[in-house]
Design a protein that fits this description.
alpha/beta, 12 helices
Length: 282
């Protein structure tokens, strides 16, 4: 995988066909080829944010008009590790993913001494989105945003357009729809034909939505779950100070802002997740 971990990357388009071929040192490397580390009983990708962004944007473009279902990428943190260890149905939803990012500093820290292949850094979706957007502008990958309340997704859409004026943002839709409305939502997404679909419905609803509809999203190149990303893109919520992020204390900052909703969750899942990380990692 030494060549695959290089950032030398090129993508060429086959004229008249609409499909893309990845060339260069990363050619032939797909999500399932990325090395993994077992952390808390979950298979986590050993990859940094920069390389993830390169891969995601280019994988998505390469999948364009391929007739194959989109790649499915999600993320895991302490809450997810704890939930997957206690709920088989949720674990199965994450097992469906082609690649799982480490969205927790403790995961990165434990991997340094517990895993043969340590995870190089945290790949928080709130940061990764911007990395991917930069690459997407360069390679021509298009985005669709799905999730959050109407006013939040519209604010997020407007801010993304301002931040990335050359990004092809082909659609955005709120995440408030009934199960029987899913087929119409899928049709709307397919009509827009985004290379990357960002889904923010919350864990595990977003994973369940993707697992149910992955085969039907036949005009999408790649699907990525986002958690609360749209709250941050819309400036509805703020990130923790950088020093807290570096120390792995972003959860504490978020709990201080929403103690009723998040306080008990973190008090119960964080210790369990740490125990799992220390006993079920390799």
């Amino acid at each position: 995988m030494s060549a695959a971990m290089s950032l030398e990357f090129a993508i060429t388009h086959e004229t008249g066909i609409g499909q893309a071929a990845i060339t260069g040192p990363l050619a032939g490397v797909w999500p399932k080829d990325i090395p993994t580390a077992t952390l808390g009983g979950m298979e986590i990708a050993v990859i940094d944010r920069a390389l993830s962004a390169e891969y995601m944007a280019n994988w998505a473009v390469a999948r364009r008009n391929s007739g194959k279902p989109p790649f499915y990428i999600t993320s895991a943190n302490g809450q997810v590790i704890s939930l997957c260890a206690t709920n088989r149905e949720v674990k199965a939803l994450f097992d469906d993913a082609d690649l799982i990012h480490a969205d927790g500093s403790p995961m990165v820290a434990v991997s340094q001494f517990a895993c043969a292949h340590p995870v190089p850094e945290r790949a928080a979706t709130t940061d990764l989105f911007h990395d991917v957007a930069e690459v997407a502008q360069r390679v021509g990958a298009s985005f669709f945003l799905l999730g959050a309340r109407e006013e939040i997704i519209r604010a997020a859409e407007a801010n993304v357009r301002k931040l990335y004026p050359h990004l092809k943002l082909v659609g955005a839709r709120n995440g408030y729809f009934k199960r029987e409305e899913e087929s119409a939502v899928i049709a709307e997404i397919n009509d827009a034909a985004p290379d990357i679909l960002w889904v923010g419905l919350g864990v595990p609803l977003e994973q369940a939505f993707i697992s149910r509809n992955l085969m039907a999203l036949d005009r999408v190149g790649l699907v990525k779950t986002t958690g609360g990303l749209f709250d941050f893109l819309s400036n509805t919520k703020s990130r923790a100070p950088e020093w807290m992020q570096r120390m792995g204390l972003e959860w504490l900052y978020r709990a201080s802002l929403e103690p009723t909703r998040l306080g008990w969750r973190y008090l119960t899942t964080n210790p369990h997740a740490m125990w799992l990380l220390l006993t079920k990692s390799k």
